[in-house]
């Protein structure tokens, strides 16, 4: 009996996301819990970075998971990755929330990190925590689509083809978005170089 | 021309430095991912995961069904017993003469509603 339980737990741990979703649809609550533990933290990390608000990120995760459970009986294995499907829902939910914000003021970069006269030197001097905060503040100044693309690429570690699927755009469009985002980030982080005496040479 | 190349080279160096700095920021942020709280995950597990569909019952009848079955069985026996007591109470003399010896014959119609049970038994 105990051996059976261990085998079952191991099978759940090793199962691909799609198999867990199918098992959940067939009444296996343990499979649903394992899938929740895999998907929810990733969606939360993405939403918190994009929205800059943990409470809103929790709402996005909850909505995403509810939609996942509702869709479970219709899931067909092999057609898509569960995580890709979940990210796609989360991207759309975040986009809706960002549109509704419009007039909401964004966090100013100089409220978080000291203004960098030389970006590289400034980053070298920052603590790890300050680096993360500085990047979060700079992300908040990006256009929505650029922010979503760069978070998925450089913070969530997804490939460009995956991001293309998630954002429903071509791979080239993803490359363009992330390239523009990186330029914007560098500009945002080093945007005060003139008043700080930083010379482009 | 030499100055231009120098400036271009300086710009390229700066671009590389800025790229490296941005990569350092990405690495720092990726190493400190935003994680949901344990409370939120617990709430999510309790509230968001719907209960799996119940399995078909393969159990004996419920206690209520068993109780009803026992009630009707018991009430049948009790009814017969009460009827016997009632007959004995209203017609004790008739029961004195009633026996199921082989000599006695009692027609089934005798026990139908409206029959004169006393007359039948005294025959």
Report what the structure shows.
The complex is a heterodimer of chains A (201) and B (123). Chain A is mostly helical. Chain A folds into two domains: 1-103, Rna Polymerase Sigma Factor, Chain: A, CATH 1.10.1740; 105-201, Arc Repressor Mutant, subunit A, CATH 1.10.10.10. In chain A, 70% of the residues lie in helices and 0% in strands. Chain A is built from ten helices and no strands. In chain A, helix 2 packs across helix 3 and helix 9 (160-167) packs across helix 10 (171-189). The termini of chain A are far apart. The relative contact order of chain A is 0.10. The model of chain A is unreliable at 1-7, 107-115 and 192-201 (pLDDT under 50). With 123 residues, chain B is mainly α. Chain B has a domain at 1-49. Helix content of chain B is 66%, strand content 0%. Chain B has five helices and no strands. Chain B has helices spanning 2-31, 38-48, 63-90, 92-97, 117-122. Chain B is rod-shaped and about 135 Å long. The N and C termini of chain B lie far apart (149 Å). Mean pLDDT of chain B is 63; it is low at 65-72 and 97-111.
